[in-house]
TrEMBL record:
Protein's name in the database: Spermidine/putrescine transport system ATP-binding protein
Keywords: ATP-binding, Nucleotide-binding, Transport
Source organism: Ancylobacter rudongensis
Any one GO molecular function term: ATP hydrolysis activity
UniProt cross-references to PROSITE patterns, sorted A to Z: ABC_TRANSPORTER_1 (PS00211), ABC_TRANSPORTER_2 (PS50893)
Pfam families for this protein: ABC_tran, TOBE_2
GO terms under biological process: quaternary ammonium group transport
Transmembrane segments annotated in the record for this chain: none
Cleaved signal peptide residues: none
């Protein structure tokens, strides 16, 4: 196996008594698109700034191709950073902004111009070359910032909340454009975002952080299907989290007795759940079907409709059981077209036991 491109090895960053980053280790392969995701203040930007060389770790090591980077200055790292605010020079034209890094690298003017033209063309801003950046829309500025960084032809591109200043429909468009750029360029992208939909839409692997620590690393699908802990299950959304008392069944599966009634799921591979212990079961909302009547198979919970939420082509139905348990089911609008879902209506929520998983105790 090839050596990882970047190694973040037990890195911490302390500000006074506060650990902005507590103890973070992960590796990044060449050409990966990595998203650092987590709530505001969890240490994402600090981690990115340490990779960029704008901050020094208090302890631990950052390596590029096996070589310690900690003491290298930002300009020695070949890792330009695109900021949320884009940090463009407002008094310079688009072209001069894009040429800026190349000028610092003392590239001759004709070469500079050629490269800048190339990258402006590639990012669809060639027609804006002579404009001042203060005369651009948010989306256009974003493209200038990207062109300026990519004109340096770096080995990796660092992005800090690159889409958060854009309005929603533009954000979705830039998302796919970043994915396309990443695929075409083949370089490593490390992108910080607090939005799980953004991270999951773009990244090959997502690093989920909370309070300066990594909670889970994995491909979006993996994380969606199997959250490592309660924080992740809640943060990525779309999950039902049922708590109750466990009961190990004769076949080794586990029954959970709680506010939603008695439901079953496979025992986790790591030991730890015993009869009588408190346990937490996660069932993704898109795995729960709604029916008018019981079929007597799988997990079935009798409930009533509390609210129905339509977002795009997805319907989320919030339900309440007689015991006061809450659950939600997420279906496609198409599938629910002929299902009456009046508030207060009784329905049966149903899922296969294998769709649920217990969180580690
Ligand atoms: P995120 O990007 O995930 O929102 P940051 O990495 O910016 O979070 O910050 C992590 C924590 O470190 C926060 O509590 C923040 O207040 C603190 N922090 C960041 N930079 C500094 C600094 N220069 N001085 C003191 N505290 C800081
Ligand atoms: Mg930040």
């Amino acid at each position: 196996m090839a050596a990882p491109m970047i190694e973040i090895d037990r890195v911490a960053k302390q500000y006074g008594n506060h650990a902005a980053v507590a103890d973070v280790s992960f590796t990044i392969d060449k050409g990966e698109f990595i998203a650092l995701m987590g709530p505001s203040g969890c240490g994402k930007t600090t981690t990115l700034r340490m990779i960029a060389g704008l901050d020094q770790p208090t302890s631990g090591e950052i390596r590029l191709w096996g070589r310690r980077l900690n003491e290298d200055a930002p300009w020695e790292r070949d890792a330009p950073l695109v900021w949320q605010s884009y940090a463009l020079f407002p008094f310079l034209s688009v072209r001069k902004n894009v040429e800026f890094g190349l000028k610092q690298r003392r590239l001759p003017a004709t070469e500079r111009r050629k490269k800048a033209d190339e990258w402006m063309e590639r990012l669809g801003i060639a027609g804006l070359a002579e404009r001042g950046v203060d005369q651009l829309s948010g989306g256009q500025r974003q493209r200038v910032a990207l062109a300026r960084a990519l004109a340096l032809e770096p080995e990796m591109l660092l992005l800090d909340e690159p889409l958060s200043a854009l309005d929603p429909h533009l954000r979705v468009r830039m998302q796919s454009e970043l994915v396309r750029l990443h695929r075409e360029l083949g370089i490593t992208f490390i992108c910080v975002t607090h939005s799980h939909s953004e991270a999951f839409a773009m990244a090959d692997r997502v690093v989920i952080m909370n309070e300066g620590r990594i909670q889970q690393i994995g491909a979006p699908r993996e994380i969606h299907r199997r959250a490592a802990n309660r924080f992740v299950a809640e943060f990525v959304g779309g999950n039902n989290i049922f708590t109750g008392t466990a009961c190990v069944e004769a076949d080794g599966s586990i029954a959970l007795v709680g506010p939603v009634g008695t439901v079953h799921a496979p025992a986790p591979t790591e030991a730890g759940i015993v009869t009588g212990a408190a346990a937490t079961l996660v069932v993704p909302a898109d795995r729960i079907e709604l029916a008018a009547e019981s079929t007597g198979s799988g997990n079935e919970v009798a409930a009533r409709v509390v609210t129905v939420e339509f977002v795009g082509s997805t319907v989320t139905v919030f339900l309440e059981t007689e015991g006061g348990g809450e659950l939600r089911a997420q279906r496609s609008l198409h599938e629910m077209e002929n299902t009456p879902l009046a508030v207060g209506q009784p329905v049966v929520a149903r899922w296969s036991p294998s769709q649920g998983f217990f969180l580690p105790a």
